[in-house]
Amino acid sequence: MVNGWPVVRFGDVVRQSRATTDPSSGELSRYVAGEHMDTDDLRIRRWGTIGDGYLGPAFHRRFDRGQVLYGSRRTYLRKVAVADFDGVCANTTFVCESGSDELLPELLPFLMQMESFQMHSISQSKGSVNPYVNWSDLAWFEFRLPPVSEQRRLATILGASAACVARFEDTRAAAHRAEEAYAAQVFAELEAREHDRCQVRPLGDLLNACQYGLSTKASDVGRVPIFRMMNLEDGEVTENLLKYVDMTDDKLTPYELRWGDLLLNRTNSADLVGKVGIYRLDGAHVFASYLMRLSPADGVDSDYLNAFLNSSLGQRRVRAFATHGVSQSNINASNLRKVAVPFPSGGEQAAIASRLSRLKSARKALSARVDSTRQLHRSLIDHFLGGPLTA
User: Fold this and answer.
1) What is the pLDDT of residues 223-258, one digit of tens each?
2) Is residue 364 part of a domain?
């Protein structure tokens, strides 16, 4: 970073496009919502098709190929993406483009990925439940702008870095698809050969217990950690963001988890209810009331059962028993016990679980590579563009 670069305000070189469109006109076919944009990923990998459902009145902002989309809600999610197609988004997504000859369009997305820009956006956000930032509060963000000749050089370097991140992300996504495809195929084949060394049995027959969790207030300190729905991640029970409870042993012991237990999220939004994770942790832990403990019976491989319940087939069957409220869906224990599970011999259960575990390990290794490469990309952006404003 060269201290001689002039200090400019974001709003002096970047323009917010306010072009509008009527999604029902047939002019555009795709829309992008907040959930279609990923943290620290400049590519738009998912989108919705206009006409598939009700979009709502907020979806009238037009964007064109090459413009930069920025999620103005919950800006700590760092959602910046470059459109590679024309479409429509909600008015809560800012459509940004270079507003001056002093700024090359190719450099804009990297400027918006600077740590200083992200921290400014977060600090200027308003509201607690669903914080948002106004364009006027982004406009006065100050940074040093390189000359156009230097911008070209930096855009080439950072573009190559972003492409490297994207390739690793594509590889990870392909590994995930392979993992899901294998699971779908193996469970479908098991069901096709029912009664040929494989039965299809109700989940309740494969469990020693199907137990609701502990209904008590959790806090930041206490004797025993209690798992909540955010502790179910990628088919595992994790110790992220732990809360604690303070109760006597006689009240806690019936809810203490054992190695190989499964936890199922019985109450959540429709797209998250039914998530399952396997407990493979040391120490004493209990679980909250909106989770259910599934304790596999003798002869049932915990990893196999966890793999099935997390597969596309297993999730469809679990969620088929969900009852839907205004904002929450719920699955009760008696219905959950009816879920049909393909059940081969113990040796075949273990072999299937082992193969799926190896696929998952490969994917997680790729995820680690994606994370490290993305961190390197962010450090390059801050090295080249995010220096101090004072000499």
Assistant:
1) 899 999 989 999 999 998 888 988 777 888 899 999
2) no
Tens-digit pLDDT profile for residues 297-351: 999 999 999 999 999 999 999 999 988 877 788 899 999 999 999 999 889 999 9
132 and 267, same domain (yes or no): no
The CATH number covering residue 67 comes to: 3.90.220.20
**CA distances from residue 21 to 37, 178, 323 in whole angstroms, order as listed:** 21, 39, 37
Domain that holds residue 314: 198-344
Kindly state the DSSP code that residue 65 receives in the 8-state scheme: T
Helices (H) and strands (E) in the chain, counts: 10, 24
Task: Kindly state whether residues 128 and 202 are assigned to the same domain.
Answer: no
DSSP secondary structure string for all residues of 269-317 = -TTTTT-EEE----S--EEBTTEEEEEEPTT--HHHHHHHHHSHHHHHH
Sheet holding 329-330, edge to edge: 267-268, 329-330, 323-324
Task: Enumerate the β-bridge partners of residue 324.
Answer: 329
Closest listed residue to residue 352, CA positions, set 316, 305, 317? 305
pLDDT tens string 13-37: 999 999 999 998 989 999 999 889 9
Helix (H, G, I), strand (E, B) or coil at 222: coil
Q: Looking at the domain assignment, is residue 184 inside a domain?
A: no
